[in-house]
Design brief:
Number of strands of chain A: 20
Radius of gyration of chain A: 28 Å
CATH topology of the largest domain in chain A: Rossmann fold
Structural class of chain A: alpha/beta
Number of helices of chain B: 4
Distance between the termini of chain B: 18 Å
Strand content of chain A: 5-15%
CATH class of chain B: Alpha Beta
Largest interface: A-B, 15 and 12 residues
Low-confidence stretches of chain B: none
CATH superfamily of the largest domain in chain A: P-loop containing nucleotide triphosphate hydrolases
Mean pLDDT of chain B: 91
CATH architecture of chain B: Roll
Order of helices and strands of chain B: EEHHHEEEH
CATH architecture of the largest domain in chain A: 3-Layer(aba) Sandwich
Low-confidence stretches of chain A: 863-871
Distance between the termini of chain A: 60 Å
Largest sheet of chain A: 9 strands, mixed
CATH topology of chain B: Nuclear Transport Factor 2, Chain: A
Number of domains of chain B: 1
Mean pLDDT of chain A: 90
Number of strands of chain B: 5
Strand content of chain B: 15-25%
Oligomer: heterodimer
Radius of gyration of chain B: 13 Å
Chain lengths: ~850, ~100
């Protein structure tokens, strides 16, 4: 019998029943408020020696189910058995799985007796030590050894000798931790002067930036920034502190626009790289990567993705001769129990729980709810509150509004803490002052419950995440922001019919990206995924999805493969009026990308993507692009500066400027403090809709959108914007619901002021400046801060920008700016202003969390370090 | 009631309604935030002179006129003064006198 045959037999037959029993026992310990079934045999009956032997055989397999079984046996031995020798054997088995974090956890929880090495026989001891040495990597810059698992070790080795690398591993395999360590090592050892870490969302940008700051400590030889400004970049190139930028793809384009095509990035890390397939922003990511590669042919490029099927796909466009490597891991690091919850017939407060194991469901017992769950939200809330009572419980809600309501329901089942935790009170204070006195988050966090969605201000969101990690927030109800890449794990996740966006059932790989967060490696031995009503086809159209990995496919490839759709769109783009194109976002983005490529190369058959498509399709697209290109004279350089904005739209806008008969100054925006600033934004939005792309629709909402943009640029706090929105509704006698109005204002800020407006206003200004130069009116060109950057960060004054360059979040910067008279302070001036008033800060009625951030970032001796900046 | 003619500067209108339509068409040629052209500016100066509060509206003087938004999503003419202050005015008020 070969080894693989033996492993297959063991799992399918040999230890199947014992493993099922062990699974039930390990999972039952995880769930609160449960009555176990009557037929459970005592623990002593588990035949540990047989299981551990099987476990050591299974541990040698690369096949995930085998590794999971070995991990289950090792975990069971360490956590369930009372025998020292069995615990020791379980620990050795964890060592064989390179799961050193689980061993450390067992030590922290006093599950192991000290001096394991002394109890092991000579040969086992040598083997264990050899394994520890084999599974360690040397951090060159510090000379320190880091203990790693197999995936982490392969990454470290391959990253050293390959220029392009694509690494894929499931959530919670220590990817981010390792990549950040590696990045810092590269920077410290001087192998890169300027590195960019790309993350798909602002939430992840903040998180990665924060992690880097902590890892770097007080070191000043490496700086971190998430602001696309040139000062630190120039300093790094001139031999000053080396620099890590943490950006979204849009911010990388902003920086490239400022620096020109000569932007010199040595190292580019693309996190959540499977998002190259995202509708509308995937192609912007692809464009950003290609732009960095064009500027530096020696660019070192690392892609990181969660469990993906084909990480090698990302390496397909590597230049000839570049060494590439794909690292793929599917090894489990923590046990993940898929548990289904079904109501006991006729008893709505009782729910049968069973754990999925191979194709069977092993009954665990009956969960008792505190109250009858009438309605779907209550069902989700009450099951989560009961099963995850001990905390670390994440609940998935399909919409932001649902997340608030479910969190509210959970909070009503919990007794308030006496005395309330001071950190929770501080967060509640921040929510009241930073958003609105009646923002629902405030009373909820006081009870240890919170909600979390994408449009929330980052300072609040990060604090919610921090307190959830620390255990003070016991229940967190979240939306799909978490699948978009916030590294937040939990002990238990509870879901019912998860959707992504509005109405679309979640794809299996999205479900598993989310569910994979169950299990905090190194903090817990197991994670639990509780799926409610698995038989309900409305909730789960294809049942609870089997474990699945992302297929990587570039958005550009996916759209081209749709057949004639794109070619037809390009035809329509050239002839139709813009309002007819309103709902064609994905064609517009990819069409713009192809058009920019065509203008640069003269044919897309020369582009890297051509090799992936039928030559006839490429020729047909080339033909349409040629027809459009014949109408365009703006040149490839300016087209390449505005990814996702069509060069044809840019040309039409230029044509409109050329044809404009009024006073040329009418085309300019005004500084936000100018009386006509709002009106000018209204008109510019209309011009953009008419000539560039229908980005601000419907037309009737333009006044509202312009108002939000002006308030945002003026540096209004979110709380002030919400107050003004309330006043506006009241003054016009319009009815409103406060929670909806609060969420809507947050959404407008994120989607209009920070996403659409910078994208299209930047393009507008570039074309306008081009026109002004052409007509000899370059005197009208303002050389202030780029409008795109002003909007991305919501600042228009030098002081506010300086504060944010120092690492203060916008929310804190705005609060502090209300106290600062001058609008032209440099970074040093801001630090001096705070230092002079340190003793008075307490009396300024500033929320504690904001005060803490101000002290950390502006008074260097108080904080970790000051060499950072963030949104 | 017979239609009342109206004269604005060098422009003569058979009835006030014609003057109103003329000024409305002028207003709608502009986008909000636009500066009024030199040719139209003279007409507006003459129109403003007919306003019941003309003196207060003009104040310390007029640098130029512009079109900006007014209440409830509408737009109207605005006076811009040398001291940086601005004030809107209704051409209808000028016509009715």
């Amino acid at each position: 019998m070969s080894l693989i045959d033996l492993q297959t037999w063991l799992l399918g037959e040999g230890i199947r029943d014992e493993l099922d029993e062990l699974t039930r026992r390990t999972v039952v310990t995880e769930i609160d408020n449960m009555v176990p079934p009557d037929d459970v045999a005592p623990i002593a009956e588990i035949e540990w020696s047989r299981l551990l032997l099987a476990g050591s055989v299974l541990a040698r397999s690369d096949y995930r189910p085998h590794q999971e079984a070995a991990l289950r046996i090792a975990t069971g031995a360490v956590t369930l058995s009372t025998s020292e020798s069995i615990k020791d054997a379980g620990t050795v088995l964890l060592g064989k799985l390179s799961n050193f974090r689980a061993i450390n956890l067992a030590g922290k929880r006093d599950l192991l007796t000290a001096d394991l090495d002394g109890r092991l026989g000579m040969s086992l001891r040598i083997e264990a030590q050899r394994r520890q040495m084999d599974q360690a990597i040397l951090v060159e810059s510090s000379g320190r050894w880091l203990q790693v698992n197999d995936f982490q070790q392969r990454f470290w080795k391959d990253a050293a000798d390959h220029r392009w690398l694509s690494a894929s591993a499931p959530t919670a395999s220590g990817k981010t931790f390792l990549v950040l360590q590696w990045l810092i090592d590269r920077m410290r050892s001087g192998e890169a002067r300027v590195a960019v870490y790309l993350a798909p969302t602002r939430a992840l940008v903040s998180e990665i930036e924060g992690s880097l700051v902590v890892l770097l400590g007080k070191e000043s030889a490496v700086q971190v920034s998430s602001l696309p400004l040139r000062d630190k970049y120039d300093a790094a190139l001139a031999g000053g502190a080396r620099l890590i930028f943490v950006f979204t793809q849009e911010r990388l384009h902003l920086l490239a626009n400022i620096l020109g095509e000569a932007i010199a990035i040595d190292l580019l890390i693309v996190d959540e790289a499977h998002k190259i397939g995202d509708s509308q922003r995937g192609v912007i990511l692809q464009d950003a990567i290609e732009r960095a590669g064009r500027a530096n042919p020696d660019l070192k490029l690392v892609f990181i993705s969660p469990a993906t099927q084909n990480p090698e796909e990302l390496l397909a466009d590597a230049p000839e001769g570049v060494e590439v490597a794909a690292i793929d891991s599917d090894a489990p690091t923590v046990l993940q129990n898929v548990i289904v919850a079904e109501q006991v017939p006729r008893k709505p407060k009782l729910w049968n729980l069973s754990v999925r194991q191979h194709d069977a469901a092993l009954p665990l017992g009956v969960l008792q709810l505190a109250s009858s769950p009438a309605g779907l939200q209550k069902r989700l809330a009450f099951i989560a509150a009961a099963a995850g009572e001990r905390g670390g419980t994440l609940v998935y809600a399909n919409r932001a509004a649902d997340s608030e309501q479910i969190a509210d329901l959970i909070s009503q089942l919990l007794a308030p803490a006496h005395p309330p935790d001071p950190e929770l009170l501080e967060l509640a204070d921040l929510a009241r002052k930073g958003v609105h006195p009646q923002f629902k988050l405030a009373p909820l966090v006081e009870r240890g419950v919170a909600f979390h969605y994408g449009n929330m201000p980052s300072l609040i969101r990060l604090e919610v995440e921090r307190l959830f990690r620390s255990g003070k927030i016991r229940f967190l109800v979240c939306t799909s922001t978490l699948i978009e890449g916030v590294n937040l794990s939990c002990r238990t996740i509870v879901l019912r019919g998860p959707r992504k966006g509005i109405g679309h059932p979640m794809e299996p790989h999205d479900f598993w990206n989310l569910a994979g967060r169950a299990g905090r490696w190194g903090d817990e031995f197991q994670g639990n995924i509780i799926c409610i009503d698995p038989q309900d086809t409305n909730a789960w159209p294809v049942g609870v999805p089997a474990r699945s990995r992302y297929p990587i496919k570039r958005e550009s490839d996916a759209v081209i493969e749709l057949g004639d759709g794109l070619a037809d769109y390009l035809d329509r783009r050239a002839t139709a009026t813009l309002p007819e194109l309103e709902d064609s976002g994905h064609f517009e983005q990819v069409g713009s990308y192809l058009l920019a490529n065509y203008l640069r190369l003269g044919s897309i058959s020369q582009a890297a993507l051509a090799k992936r498509h039928d030559p006839a399709t490429v020729a047909k697209l080339d033909e349409r692009l040629a027809a459009i290109a014949s109408q365009i004279d703006i040149g490839p350089e300016i087209a390449g500066r505005h990814p996702g904005v069509s060069a044809l739209g840019l040309q039409r806008l230029l044509d409109a400027f050329r044809a404009y008969e009024g006073d040329i100054e009418n085309l300019l925006p005004a500084a936000v403090d100018s009386q006509d600033s709002y009106d000018r934004f209204v008109t510019i939005m209309r011009r953009i809709n008419e000539h560039l792309f229908p980005a601000f629709m419907p037309d009737g909402l333009i006044p509202l959108h312009a108002l939000i943009v002006v308030q945002w640029l003026k540096g209004f706090s979110l709380a002030a914007m919400i107050r003004k929105n309330i006043d506006y509704h009241r003054s016009r006698g319009r009815a409103f619901r406060l929670p909806v109005l609060i969420r809507h204002t947050m959404e407008l800020v994120e989607q209009i002021a920070r996403f659409r407006a910078p994208k299209y206003f930047s393009a507008y200004m570039d074309i306008l400046n081009m026109h002004l130069r052409a007509i000899g009116r370059a005197d009208l060109i303002e050389h202030d801060l780029d409008i795109g950057i002003q909007l991305e960060f919501g600042v228009s004054s030098r002081t506010l920008l300086s504060l944010m360059e120092l690492g203060v979040s916008r929310m804190s910067a705005v609060v502090l700016y209300e106290k600062i008279a001058r609008d032209d302070l440099s970074k040093e001036d801001c630090q001096a202003w705070v230092a002079e008033r340190e003793a008075q800060l307490e009396g300024m009625d500033i929320p504690t969390i904001i005060l803490r951030e101000i002290r950390e970032k502006l008074l260097p001796e108080n904080g970790e370090q000051a060499a950072t900046s963030k949104e | 009631m017979p239609a009342k003619p109206l004269t604005i500067g060098s422009l003569h209108f058979v009835k006030k309604g014609d003057a109103s339509a003329f000024l409305q068409a002028m207003l709608h040629r502009y986008d909000v935030s636009d500066k009024v052209s030199a040719a139209d500016e003279q007409v507006l100066r003459d129109t403003l002179a007919l306003h019941p509060d003309a003196e207060a509206k003009v104040g310390c003087g007029i640098t130029h006129f512009s079109v900006r938004s007014a209440d409830f999503g509408t737009k109207c003419f605005w006076i811009n003064r040398p001291d940086g202050t601005t004030e809107k005015f209704s051409y209808k008020a000028c016509i009715t006198g």
